[in-house]
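Explain this fold:

***
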Amino acid sequence: MPTMKAAERERRNAQVLQLFLGGASHRTIAKAVGLRSHRSVGNIVQAALGSTTDRRDLLTDEAFAVWQERSERLFCAHWGPALEGNYRSAELCRKILAQHVLVYGLAQEVSLAVTRADVVEIEREPDLDDEGLDVLARMRRDRARAYG
């Protein structure tokens, strides 16, 4: 097999990065650009992310946006079945939510809010739907219908 010239490799690597930022899987990218292994895609992306500080910051932001989109799609696909009693979907949703707690630092914010002495609870009107039910009451009603 002939070796790839530097210019061709740069074009291929740019295409790999573009497909990655577009949300394609490593296997799909490998097939699209003619790489033998999907692991090579990970190496190319990691090398691109580690080049310069400005570029790395930009690409890290883009990669984070891709992660957000993928996890949101996965969560949305499993939320309905989870509410209908599908244990595997419910467990997957729980794991995604736990991951979001870590990524967004929500556990730390909650613990800080609870330990602060100057926390003041603000009473607010619950969000009501057309039937006058708040979100929690609606979920309880739907669960009772499903299992009742």
